[in-house]
Amino acid sequence: xxxxxxxxGSATIRVRATGGVLLVAHLALVAWLTLRPxxxxxxxxxxxxxLAGIRADLAxxxxxxxxxxxxxxxxxxxxxxxxxxxxxxxTVSPLASLIRTAAAGALISLGIALVQTGVPGRVVDIxxxxxxxxxxxLAHLAVVPAGRAWLRRRDTRDAREDADAGxxxxxxxxxxLSQGRTPTIPRVGIAP
Length: 192
Prior knowledge:
Blueprint: H1 9-35, H2 52-59, H3 62-75, H4 79-87, H5 94-116, H6 126-177
Helix pairs in contact: 1-4, 2-3, 3-6, 4-5, 4-6, 5-6
């Protein structure tokens, strides 16, 4: 039995399964990109001051700043769509969904930052945590509400079509089984 408001049917189960596979693939790619050791002659100190790295990027000029900030936003942005897809709820508070997804994105980004402390050539950057979380939130806001609305309309339409088909089948079966009125004999009384 499925929970009310969950994806139902084989097509939507495939969507959830595909979302799960894509989520695992994306997290594997993120781990490979962020946790492999770098062979560099020197390492910058960790950035523990919020927005200091973004200000430094902006001081380099707009093209380079846009590239660095865009990389930070894009790294975990697919999680904003994949996490709700894997969760599979259609009828959920948009704010609650956004908060859950943002928290999960922030925790994953924090986990990456903590693991990077032990990887040669990698340093902790609080701005990457902020940008990664902002990317998750932006992707969620851009795709998930419209996607859920579309899926709800599709499920409603499919349910109506299924109900119409079921009603037609019921009427057809009733017509085939019906043989007219049951005969009665009025002269026979009811036994005591």
